[in-house]
Amino acid sequence: MADSAETSPEVMLQFYRMLYPFKSIFTWLNQEHTPKDLFTNREFAFTLQGDVYLRYNCFSNAEELKKQVCALNPTRFEIGPMYSSRPSERKLARSVKSGKLFTPLKRELVFDIDMTDYDGVRTCCTSAGICKRCWAFIANAVRVLDSALRTQFGYHQLLWVYSGRRGIHLWVSDDEAMGLTDELRRAVVGALTVIEGGKEMAKKVNVRSIGTKSHPGDLPPSLWHARDEGSRIWYPLLDDQECFLSEDGWRTLLKLVPDKKIVETLEKRWEKQPGIESSKKWDELKVEVKGTGARNLAALEDIILQYTYPRLDAEVSKHRNHLLKAPFCVHPKTGRVCVPVDPNHVENFDPDAVPTVMQLLQELDKAGEGASECTTYWEHTSLKPYVDMLDRHVVGILDDVRRRERARAVLQHGAWVLVYFRVIQVYWYSRSRSQLVMDTWKASFLSYFTAS
Asked: Which residues have a Cβ under 8 Å from the Cβ of 290 and sit 6 or more positions away?
């Protein structure tokens, strides 16, 4: 928990004035260097001191955004969709006389994974707490979700951002993702949701095809990678978290086993030997399951998925007008900056090592005169690698935009070429047809006089 002085209004104002990467955020949202509707019609919402909430703000460029942020000095700000008109003019747009509608048109496909949703399976922390150990759950979620979105949906402009406290956010900026309707967003989330049911429901994974009494049904191919990733980290996770060491833990495990005989056997054994480690309990379960049929073997796969599969906050992803905290904001409870995370090295990310706003300002002070001569002060702090990560991501987005524009130009050019050739074709056809008529009349005329 950050000291209140670490996120005081004075500290936050210094951060916004000198360290927040407004230009990088602008280019990322705008997907171009010159301002367009994707930024100018974008909603920004500010949370001010005293929990005052201001929605429907919009700006023409990065400089205007920075000026207003420094003037309001919010504790945080959030980003929404691009609307059909400027959010600040929504009342005019909604008026009957204008004939316009104020509706969200484009927005990144966003996801939110919160560590509190893992409280039923993690043992090292609870509630808002998070540490390097339980980060393993988040790391696995990132690997699984990142792979699914790339391989199953074809998206590749994915920006992962640490939430500053106990979770991680994902922003998907592909053009196809930006244009998804709410209905399609719900479909995407539905396809990626595996863990369902509240605390009262023991079995939360029910994704297999319809089976028979002896055969449980097949696991969808879309979940094979998630199953393999979960299996890869399963034993290290059990050794670290000891999910089945306590009586509540192993009884929860046995509720997921469909064979009552196996449950009774292990229940009696573990009651007599309560100190058996989680990994050994799992091995004993596997021994009992071996040779008992496909249904019990499938249950083991489902258990691994239940403990390791990403737990999504579906409501965040379903609607285009949902607001999500901007990258590089400071979390008011921890003082830590919401920095990008490299999905290829997510297991090495340490939430406790993320720079705090006070740490960054101290680094800036130590940089001295060298920093004062620079317009990008963050380059002299530990924020630099994270801003560089965002900038590299933006380069990829801009490359995609240029490729789309070139493809569009080729199609338009090709269309005009086709029109040109069609005109020539019609011209020559008409000319040849006219010549044929003339030749026919000429032949008829000559034959008439010859006959006479």
From this structure: none
Asked if 52 and 197 count as a contact pair (C-beta separation under 8 A), the reply is no
Residue 445: the pLDDT is 46
Place of tokens 């691009």: 82
* pTM for this predicted structure: 0.87
Distance CA 109, CA 182 (A): 10
Query: Per-residue pLDDT for 222 more than 50?
Result: yes
Partnered with residue 25 across adjacent β-strands are none
Distance of alpha carbon 149 from alpha carbon 134, whole angstroms: 24
Same domain, 26 and 114: yes
Confidence of residue 408 (pLDDT cuts 50, 70, 90): confident
Q: Of the candidates 153, 173, 154, which has an alpha carbon nearest to the alpha carbon of residue 106?
A: 173
If asked whether residues 25 and 133 sit together in one domain, one would say yes
Please name the helix (run of DSSP H) or strand (run of DSSP E) that holds residue 47, with its range, or none.
strand 42-48
Domain that includes residue 272, residue range: 221-308
Catalytic sites, residue numbers: 43, 112, 114
Judge if 44 and 185 occupy the same domain. yes
